[in-house]
Amino acid sequence: MKKRLLASALCLFAFPALASDVAYPKNYRQWAHVKSLILEEGHPLFASFGGLHHIYANEKALEGYRTGRFPDGAVIVFDLLEVQKGGNAIAEGNRKVLGVMHKDRQRFKDTGGWGFEGFAQGDPNQRVVKDKAKEACFGCHAEQAGKTDYVFSQWRK
Fold it and tell me: What domains can be seen in the chain, in order of their start residue?
């Protein structure tokens, strides 16, 4: 599961992607927290995605996690932060990127109904995902099409 989540992250952020019109998700930290993981040194994706990963979902995305089909308006946020270690503790550091998947079948027909965007350091004015979602992000997510509607993360019961 971690490998798939990281592959999803790679698809979302290693390349520029489609959907420069995906909105910055205000107040996403008040949404449901789906899961977290820490990607440590030694992992093949550490150079690009090392750190603490949090996944958040709005109400419509929660419906999708429950049913396996995400309705229009579902938004999933991938929050990647640096890790600070010390004193036998692991803490959040600076934000590296905030990634967003937004479901809208009409607007994002070429990418399974999902729009993708990433915001460097979580800054709404620093978009890193632009017009390559079909080639970059969607290629990774396509393997999840019939299983979980293009989404790698799953709701933990």
Answer: 2-148 (3.50.70.20)
Please answer whether residues 104 and 117 qualify as being in contact, where contact means their C-beta atoms are separated by less than 8 angstroms: no
pTM over 0.90: no
Element (H, E) at 65: helix 59-67
Closest CA to 17 of 96, 81, 110: 110
pLDDT of residue 76: 97
Q: Tell the burial category of 8 from Cβ atoms under 10 Å away from its Cβ (0-12, 13-18, 19+).
A: buried
Q: What is the pLDDT of residues 80-93, one digit of tens each?
A: 999 999 999 999 99
Distances in Å between the alpha carbon of 25 and those of 3, 7, 35, 75, 88?
A: 25, 22, 18, 8, 33
